[in-house]
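Our platform keeps sequence and structure together, in a single record for each protein. Such a record has a labelled line for the sequence and another for the backbone structure tokens. This encoding replaces a full spatial description with a residue-level series of whole-number codes. Below, we set out a record of this kind in full and without editing:
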Amino acid sequence: MGLMAGLVKKKKIPMEFLQSIGVKETSAGIEIPYREIDGSMCSRQRLRIGLSAKDGFRWTGPRKAEINPYGLERILDTPFLILVEGESDCWVLWFHGFPALGLPGATSMKILKKEHLRSVKKLFCWHEPDEAGGKFISGMARRVYDIGWAGELLEIKAEG
């Protein structure tokens, strides 16, 4: 079973859906397209090299190029948004019709900018059930304060 087929099975989303959003498997891993808010490709892209997120990722493109949140092109004019850590949580939410934006790690808050949240009135942050999840929530609370975003920040948390 290929890496992408394993992800499809693990995340319970159709292969066709992942392909429709530009995710594809190569000999190096799973290419995950990061786009600008206008839909154009970002300078840096992500490459997932294992079935589990813990197995690792690599960035392609110029090392000094800015990294954007994942899914920027999908959040225009949305009044609420679910913010998650990582791309695969975005895939599941998008497949089920929810607006989501992913940050590539629990401590990558600084890539979120006020203009990314321009139409968002409520921001729901997913609290992963681990130590990094707690850092993600507290870091996000600091970040929205620092950028002067004035909406409502809410935490989503599930036990187990």
Q: What stands out?
A: The chain has a mean pLDDT of 92. Residues 46 and 59 are 5 Å apart (CA to CA).
